[in-house]
Amino acid sequence: MSAVEIRPLVPEDRAAWEPLWQGYLAFYETVLSPETTDTTWTRFHEPDEPMFALGAFVDGKLVGIVHYLFHRTGWAISDSCYLQDLFVSPQLRGHGVGRALIEAVAVKAREAGAARLYWHTHETNRTAQTLYDKVAAKTGFIQYRKDL
Description:
Elements: E1 4-8, H1 14-27, H2 34-44, E2 51-58, E3 61-71, E4 80-88, H3 97-111, E5 116-118, H4 126-135
Parallel strand pairs: 4-5
Antiparallel strand pairs: 1-2, 2-3, 3-4
């Protein structure tokens, strides 16, 4: 496999980003409205938004995406960085793309002075957990959610 290039996604990357985004949603058996997808994409490119998107490119083709955001926390003076979404094309999993995307977010978080980088995954996502167990500590916390 050729080298992986990680860079911020730009508005012109929308057509390449959307199939990966939809693949991520399908993996988690989720459907979002086109309005939500449009708003999410727009937020990545608004200078006042704390949301960001990076892409992993191999031979010029987008093969992985990661979305992250910064937020305040009562546990530290510095912001936290939440890695919200990570998806790699199935045919390139296990080739270091996911690890490269996580490390790129870690670099951005360090540059922003964040106190920590964290993320969630579904308990059944064993493939991802194999990687996550190598690059971060499992906290043991369980997420609860109440839709409003």
